[in-house]
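Sat 14:20. Reprocessing the chain from the morning session after the first attempt stalled halfway. Input below, unchanged.
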Amino acid sequence: MYLSSTPGAALWPETPRGVLAVFLVSAVVWAVAAALLHVLAPGLETLGRLLVFSECVGLTMVACVVLLRRQRRFDRLPAGARWLLTGVIAIPVGYLLGHQIAFVLLGEPMRLVGVELVSVGPLLFTVLVGGLGLRYFATREQLAREAATRAEAQRLAVEAQLRLLRTQLDPHMLFNTLANLRGLVREDAGRAELMIDRLIVYLRGTLADSQADWVALGREFAQLRAYLEIMSIRMGPRLTWRLELPDAIEGARVPPMLLQPLVENAIKHGLEPKVGAGHIDVVARSTEQGIEIRIEDDGLGLPSPSASDSETASAERPRGASYGLRHVRERLQVVYGAAARLELERRDPAGVRSLVFLPA
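Finished this time. Tokens:
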């Protein structure tokens, strides 16, 4: 990754509507300039005649600036030299060519301005207004470049933070799986071998996603399936599970390994400590606001509301502030901001429901 500069041409309007807006604003500015010149030099020309010349000169100058700024070779020059060259070309061309256009509009014979008599006042006034206009455009471009640089720096910071969170999370899951595998080797070599095969499939998928900032939701569910198959071998008939993902949202983009910490949390704190069989559902659905993903288990659940405050705080800590849940919340905040959220709910009669809301 690198911090790229924004081409100058990209800072100018690309659509016909944007170009039209520039010319409309410029027309208003040059009309005000004509009125001001009429007030400062009342005997120079009539207001209507000054308005025609001012608009023709000004809009020709703006057209020249727009055309020059769309030349890619200008981007190779420093900003100061680029705008100085633009002014050296645009102001004389706008002044001379604009006068010829005004003569045509007024029905007068075209003549070269300045051959017989040079009116210093209007000439200096045109240079002053044109220079101020170029200064405005130069400042606008500089501010746009600075905003683009800040946005790029912010994007790189977000990507770095996401990668840091993922590097912390990936080993966490792997260590837990290897610890489970170590115990299973002693108990059942055949199941341990099967778990190794499932782990290889899972790690291949993780490696493929390791360089991606986003993955399809269908890919995320495939990784969940690989993980749950590993845990099913570990827990045997004590664990059953179901994944449900509509075809319409399989291609939705999500950060990699966003859901697995929630599934891992449900198994570790809800189903494994439970006596008897347990079940977990992971269901995604599309809503008007975006995508809702529900992870439900029928494990031990959250502590009873009737428990004392100290007991509640102690019991909720594993479920509400665990390593995985904290990382999910942080990643949602970094990627989506306040538009996404993670909620935990108590299920009746037992279990926990985790709800992930992703904006459209």
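The CA atoms of residues 132 and 247 lie 58 Å apart.
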